[in-house]
Amino acid sequence: MNTKPKVQLRGVYKIFGPRHTQMMTHVRAGLGKDALLADHAHVLGLQDINVDMQAGEITVVMGLSGSGKSTLIRHLNRLIDPTAGEILVDGEDVTKLSERDLRKLRQQKMAMVFQKFALLPHRTVLQNAATALAVQGADGTTQDREARKWLDRVGLGGYEHRFPSQLSGGMQQRVGIARALTAGTDIMLMDEAFSALDPLIRTDMQDLLLELQVELKKTIVFITHDLDEALKLADHLVILKDGAVVQQGEPQGILLNPADPYIEDFVSDINRARVLRVRSVMQPLAEASFAGEVEADDTLERLIALSGGDTTCTYRVMSEGQPIGLLDMKDLVKALVPRLSRSADQPDPV
Amino acid sequence: MAYYDGFFDALGLREWCDQSVEAAPTSMQALLGQLGGDTDAGARGSPPFPSLDALHESCAQIPQTRDMTAGVEEAFLAARVSLKLVLDPITQPLSWMLDGALWLFTATPWFIIVPLLVALTWYVARSLGVTLFVAASFLFLGFIDHLDVALETLSIIFVCTGLSVLLGVPIGIAMSRSNTLQRMLVPVLDLLQTLPTFVYLIPLIFLFSVTESKLYGIAIILYAIVPVIRLTDLGIRLVDPDVIEAADAFGMTKRQKLWGVQLPLALPNIMAGVNQTIMMSLAMVVIASLVSAPGLGVLVLRGIRNLELGVGIVAGFGIVLLAVILDRASKAALSRIDKNKKAH
Fold it and tell me: What is this structure's pTM?
């Protein structure tokens, strides 16, 4: 069933510069980012962004620095105004909201988590977590109860009366997440939320987010420059380059069928066995002698361990107790080879 | 013959120059020239700078420099009545406040006012050392019979600093919000800060009578308000943009942002401005004794006028003592705020 997307971006453009509206005609006529900068000294931040974000899913927007991903996420709650295009949240065009309605939207529909945490240094952890409720004018006991609840949930019970500067980076970002959760919004915007944390803490935080998501089913928009993080979290992956969407879709699909050399480059570096899942590479069910059974959502890495490295076996793929396909270990090995067919430096095997 | 005669002749302005010249009073230079007997020395010697005076000698239509200064004075005097009409009622409360504070500080017996001030020091500074130092300083000033005048000076500083903060912080906030306003105000603030302190007093003397206390009040506030405006503006502009963005993202109104985020985070800078303002009003209160501001400044003035060396030096020392007290107390308050913010 195809439900209506929670957030839709329709032909969103952003041009930075004093005469950005006039520049739209040039851009629509096909002028590229470099040409616009050279000829008119305006920066093309985003071009023709069309993305649907489904309710209850994690949409990850990935790109290198300067690709426009942070600009993109700030369009959703209009911290940045688009030059052209529509941004629909629950079917309502955000770009047409008055200042008052916009404040309401920010208070009630979207909460944001920031890369540099952006906590209020003069307020305690508890007060920080209650920020959204305080802004909405909730009474003290509600603020206190909700803030404590979410601080406990992110594992910060007992730190309520500390100040942010007394906490480590990871703990500060937990406060940032608690602050966003306390707002009680459907949508959570996470702008490189874990990028400033060291790798171990980052993994912890990703697990925390996934664990919360199972229960809360929020619509999460997550920005990152880290492909491993993107693949781990994403239900829907959007890859940006120079302000344009290069490819979007289900992450496993992007990994197996990269749309262009830029993405091939990207995906060639990652540990495919850890990311790819059995269901993405399995074949339709057929008669065969099975060496065992695997779950459809298991990673290939797990199956390799199960098989003990024997590439001659075939496994039956199970989902919820039912057989749904089979996986030949030879297919698995093929899937582990990054597809670089279009790269020029790859000589044809003779 | 004056040096620039030929210049006006060449332009064909001779006729215009010579017509209907009122007999201008002879300048001192001309008189001296007549005494020396060489009236046309200018025509032969090295060319004088073509100033108003030099040109006037060749062409009577050109005004002399003293006419120009007289013009400035006349313009000011012409505007004076209407200025006074507007400024007088507005500034009247300042006179009341200054007189009231003076009365309060001098009429209260020493055994009440001194403990009160020491308690105030403890309240703002929360530092035993500073509080003890303040108490000792007051006792010493009392012991050498300078307590009353020191308290007079202190009362003026309290009123003027209070008003400077009350006016300066909102101006600073407005300035931080608008780049245009900032561009307009910065030259004014520069002017206020660099104008020689005596120059403030001249137009004020014409506007108000010397016996009114608001005269020195205005001079002190104009001089001392600058740092608190500047540092409020700076402090708010220096607030971490990430935090401001977060405040926006959670839908804060402008007012919530100001009171909940910008002012608390700018407070250390604002307090540094207040400290500067206190010091500058102390500097000005001495000069303001020229226009009847009471306090230690009067004694310094007496020292200069009557060449009473001892009186002047002791009063000067008293001022230094006051400065140190005020500086230490406000710095201690500042560092307390800093520490609060950076967590304990």
Answer: 0.81
